[in-house]
Amino acid sequence: MADILQDFPIAAPPARVFEVISTPRLIDEWWTLTSSGEPVIGAVYKLDFGPEYQWAAEVTKADPGAAFEFTMTRADSDWTGTRVGFALSPSERGTQVKFYHTGWPVENEHFRISCHCWAMYLRILRRHVEHGESVPYHDRLDV
To answer: Could you tell me the pTM of the whole model?
Structure first.
C-alpha cells in the first residue's frame, strides 16, 4: 500500500487549525466545493467536489486541537477505504501539522495526481489559516 505524507508548520494555535480542518464551512475554503458533517467520531461527512464526485467519509478520530481523521466510505475506487488525517502539535511557530492520506491500494496515476493535489490544497489551507486568503474552488489547482 502507498501513503501520502506531508509535514508543515502553520502559524496559528492547534485549536484554530483543528477548527479549519474539521468545520464544513471552513473545509470548503481550502478543499471541497461544499461539505457537511460534525467533527465527532462516527459522524459522516458529505464531501462535494462537483456533479460526478459526491463523496462521503466517516470520522475515525476527533481530538480537538490534536487530531482529526476520516475514512473514505464513498469515493473513487482507489480512495475508498483510505484514511485522511491530521496530527497537530504545538510548536514555537504555532502548530506542527503531520498530514497523511494512507491506505492507497497501488501507486497508480490517481495516486500520483493526488500527491500533487494534496500539496496544493495543504498550501491553500496554510494560507487560509495564516492570512485569511480564499481561493475560488475552480481555481485551486492553478495556485
So the answer is: 0.95
